[in-house]
Every structure is written in structure tokens, then in C-alpha cells.
Amino acid sequence: xxxxxxxxxxxxxxxxxxxxxxxxxxxxxxxxxxxxxxxxxxxxxxxxxxxxxxxxxxxxxxxxxxxxxxxxxxxxxxxxxxxxxxxxxxxxxxxxxxxxxxxxxxxxxxxxxxxxxxxxxxxxxxxxxxxxxxxxxxxxxxxxxxxxxxxxxxxxxxxxxxxxxxxxxxxxxxxxxxxxxxxxxxxxxxxxxxxxxxxxxxxxxxxxxxxxxxxxxxxxxxxxxxxxxxxxxxxxxxxxxxxxxxxxxxxxxxxxxxxxxxxxxxxxxxxxxxxxxxxxxxxxxxxxxxxxxxxxxxxxxxxxxxxxxxxxxxxxxxxxxxxxxxxxxxxxxxxxxxxxxxxxxxxxxxxxxxxxxxxxxxxxxxxxxxxxxxxxxxxxxxxxxxxxxxxxxxxxxxxxxxxxxxxxxxxxxxxxxxxxxxxxxxxxxxxxxxxxxxxxxxxxxxxxxxxxxxxxxxxxxxxxxxxxxxxxxxxxxxxxxxxxxxxxxxxxxxxxxxxxxxxxxxxxxxxxxxxxxxxxxxxxxxxxxxxxxxxxxxxxxxxxxxxxxxxxxxxxxxxxxxxxxxxxxxxxxxxxxxxxxxxxxxxxxxxxxxxxxxxxxxxxxxxxxxxxxxxxxxxxxxxxxxxxxxxxxxxxxxxxxxxxxxxxxxxxxxxxxxxxxxxxxxxxxxxxxxxxxxxxxxxxxxxxxxxxxxxxxxxxxxxxxxxxxxxxxxxxxxxxxxx
Length: 723
Description:
Blueprint: H1 26-31, E1 56-69, E2 72-86, E3 97-114, E4 117-133, H2 143-147, E5 163-166, E6 180-197, E7 200-217, E8 224-227, H3 238-244, E9 249-253, E10 257-275, E11 280-288, E12 295-296, E13 302-305, E14 310-313, E15 328-336, E16 344-354, H4 360-363, E17 374-378, H5 393-396, E18 405-408, E19 416-428, E20 432-451, E21 474-497, E22 500-513, E23 539-540, E24 547-556, H6 571-576, E25 580-588, E26 592-593, E27 596-597, H7 600-604, E28 613-614, E29 636-637, E30 652-653, E31 657-671, E32 674-683, E33 697-698, E34 714-722
Parallel strand pairs: 5-8, 18-21, 27-33
Antiparallel strand pairs: 1-2, 2-3, 3-4, 4-6, 6-7, 7-10, 8-9, 9-17, 10-11, 10-12, 11-15, 13-14, 15-16, 16-19, 19-20, 20-21, 21-22, 22-23, 22-24, 24-25, 25-31, 26-30, 28-29, 31-32, 32-34
């Protein structure tokens, strides 16, 4: 340690920067053994572990087909998939398990009324059950007895190890948002009617779906403790604060929350494929997709009215947001052969598509008081100190901390996308074709989170400076975000000929958004910090990949019966014939990411994080990049206290991806109707190192440094008996 470590009591440096042993808390001494010992030299990246991941999966598919007569067909299908995968165990004893159980049942009846009129009716049921757990759940592990930290309510299924995050060091602890139990059920009834009339092919029908999405999830019931170098009542050193037992921030929830969301999604559609001439076909369609607003089945949710600053009790069936019955989705497409030949075709289209996903934004109503309460405590001069013995001081003093709420705006609605495309296809020879074109998507009405109760930047306690001092964090969920995607594409296709088929495509694209992929848990999207001060902000999407090239190919080796060589039969022909080689190769640019500041929340002191100031473009030329300095770290400086900083969007590009997967298989005929299929698969066949994102937190030792990479080559073999 080169900077002075201050004694928080005297504000003078400890002699020799050494903390007296009698000042190191008993709780810290009990936690320290859970950190593994270093096994590599150096101050940074001095711990290395080989953490294999084993995935167990069982799946089965059954199908029944029956023909009642020449005009009546029926099939039923059932599928089951069971998967279990632990995360890599980087620290001994800390591993999250993830499981998935999925069921699918379909019954389909087709009636041929006349050769030109066909009707299909389909009923289906889909269920997926996702669960995540940690090793100390439902055990006798007791946080107060084992670690000496009081007032943490974790027990039973929410039991676990607190999350301990020390700035500049790898964190230790069980996941704060576990356990996770999420069963989703979908019931569907659909019908399609197809009518052929001369130049017109009419399709019409309906699609009715009942959606049931439940979720039970932990809410930091195990506790979370953050130690920063910027603790205003600490030693100015994160590790020293940990040893002294002085967190800058502590968080605790009182229970796991549960939500049981329900809604109906209905659809009516009509489409006409109109063959105007031999060279021109129009596709005209219209969908009407009314959807009932989402509600909770038991009413264990609470809303919030931001205009009056008061919670809104909700009953079972109370809509989360207003209904919208104007969801019309027109679609138009065309295929034109300008020269009257099948070899040259121009295709284009435009359509509106609605998004009815029950995403994470809706879950916030289930984690509101009184159903679940999460309290955050931030160290400030003049306030009761946060210590291991008193980790949640305002509650201990008899004053409950202000509650946090999430809510949806009164005009919240369903988002939609406008997709458009234009492509030119040209056949070359008998088996080859090329295609060039454009694809675009303008998505409107995306949801995003906004911190609606942040204080203005400035010194002093945050709470009195909030808009509503009686509340803590108020998370406003809006549906006004936009995203923009534009891409130029090129594709080469070789139809199966001479034992070879190839599909190769290249995409040059740019994706910008204001809020991307809330379904995946990233509602802030391109904007680093969504506050009222930056609602118009937009930046590169996390999905942005400027260049993407993908090629797949299947090649039947020219040996054996019916092929060019060794086709006369015999043992050698039987052994070497019939082999098939396939591959999928991908090369793509890296995704975009942003830089944040260590201890940024304390520096801006609003409730949100501070961003750094960016002095120039920090992306380095390829010739200057290395895993030890992937971007220009000097381009970023810490913004002055109580300012947000200028780095607002994702501007940096992480390493790209190069991956080649190879598959080799052969079917051995054992006897009539019985085959034994051998398959060997190699993922990342070239064993290429695909580096991960570099450290992106300004002020940490790994800033700009790449410390991990994707999986190495994985090989597997299998035998399948087909009879």
C-alpha cells in the first residue's frame, strides 16, 4: 500500500500503514478464510483456478401420427428436457446451480375440406421451470453464529453467505438474488384456414394464449456489504475498511418476494399472397393483437403514484398498466423477377410486430413493500456508523429506513418493432446463388428504468435532498425507449451437390438504443445511468457487432457405396464409407461496453453512480492493443466531486470472437431397419483464445486489463441406436 491508511478514529495514518491486531474485527477474521490463498506471484491476478463446468441433460421426444381418412390427419407430440448446470467454482464452496425443466405437448388436427381449402387446429401446452440455488440454502448455516454479523434474516431457502465486495479484490459470497424459482406456463389454441383461389392464396385464423408467469426470488436477504476506497468515514483503503469492519454500504432485504403474473394474448390475422403476374407476387397481411394487461393472481403487489408520492394497494386481477386495444400490425412484402427469369429475384418487406414479453420491469411491483422490503445504508459523517456489530444502524436506532418502491408510468404500454428489408438474389450456375441486401429495425415503446427520486448532486446526507424524503429509491418503469438497427448483408448459398452444401453470410451492422434487453436483465441499455437528466441519451447496444461472418458446411466424404471411391463393397468400404463432415465457423467483432468509476455512488452522492470524464476516443488501433492495455486508460479521468461525468454511452469495443465447431458422424447399418450412429463433436475446434471484456471500472487495478477468456476446446462423442 503506497497511500496512507488512516485511522478512522483519529484521522491520522496508522504507523507503518499497519493496523494493530486488536483493531481487526472478529467478523473479518472469520470471513478471511473463505478467500482462497494466492497461488501466483504479483499484486494483480495472483489467483488462478481451473474451474470445469459439467452440464447434465436428459431429453426425450415422442410423436404419434394418425390418419382417420384421406382428408383427416392428426398428430400429437410430447417433449421433455431436463438440464442442470453449476457455475464455475472459482472460490471453493461458492457455486450457483442452475436448472431447467421444460415440457411441451402439442395436438394438431388438419382437415382437407377441398383441394383448395385446408384448415388446421392446434392446441398446445408449454411449461418451463427455471431454478437457481446456492450450497447453503436449506442448511443449518447461521450467519450470526458462523460470522458474528447480526440482524440478517436469512434462513431456510434464503439462507446463504453474505455478499462481501471489497474494491480492488474479487468478491466472495452467495448470490444476493437467490433463490430463484420461475415456473412459466403457456396454454395455446390456434386455427389456420388456407384458401387457394386462382392468383390468390388466402390465410386467416386466430391465436389465443393464456400466459402464467410466476417468480420467487431472493432480495438480498443474506445481506450485502460494499467496501470502497472512498468511504467518507473510513480509512481511505477498501481492504483496511474490511479489516476494521467499516462498510461504505450495507444492504439487506427481509424476505424473498413472489409474483404471479397472468394475461391473455389474442391474435386475429388475414394474409393474401397475390400472384399479380409471372414475375411479381405481393404479400399483404394484417394482424390484430389485443392483449389484456398483466395482473397478479393473488394481489401480492403494490403500485406507486409518483404525482402524489403514495403507494397504491392492488387487488388480485388489478391491471399493472392500462389496456391497449389498438394493436394493429400491417405487413407487406413482394417478390419480383425483373427479367422474368427464376435466376434474379428482388424481395422486400415491411411489418409491425408487437412485443408481449413479461419482462423484468413488471417484477418490480412484486418486490414492493409490504410484500418485500429492502433497505440500503450508506456511510456518512454525522450518521450512525455502519459496522459489523451494527450493520444496519438506522433500524437498530429505532428509526426504520425509508422504503423503496418500483412503479410503472400511467401511459405504460406494449412496445413494437418496425422491420423492413430489401434483398437482391442472383443464381449462379445450377447450384450456387448470392444475395445482397439491407435489413433494419426501429423498435419503439421499449421499457427502461429511471431513478425518479434521486437527490441533486452535492454534499451531505442524500435522504433530505430527495424529491420525496420519506422514500428511498423510486424506480420508474417507462415504455418510451427506442432502438435502431441497420445492417447490410451478403450471403452465398450452395445447394447440395457432389456431396457438399454451404451457407455463408456476412453482416455489417450498427445497433443503437436507449434501453436494450430488459428481458435479459439489462434495462439501462446504451445509457449508463438512466435519470431524468439523460432520458434522451442513446448509445451502442450491448448486442452491437459491427462485423459478423458465419459459414456452415456439410460434406459427405467420397468413399463407400454410391460414392466416387471404394464403392465396390467389402469391409474397407463399410468402414470408411458413409462419413459426413460438417462445420460452423463464426468470426465477429466485439461488443460495446462503458466505463464506470470505483465508488461512483459516493462521489456523485445522488443515489446513482458517477461516470468518468472521457477526454478522447479510447479505442486503440489493433497494433497497440494487448491484454494488459486493451484501450487507452489515460483517456479517462475521475470527474470532479458531485458531477455526473461525460462518459454517458457505450463507446469501447471488447475483443471479438473466432470460433469453429466441427462434427463428424457415420451411420453403421447393423441389420435391416437398425442403424448405429457414431458422432464426434468438437467445439472451438481450433482452440482459439476468445478474450473476455477488459476491466472497465476506473480506479481498480484491472482497469483496461483482460483477465479471463472463453472456453477452450471441448470434445464429445456419442452413439445412437436408431431402429
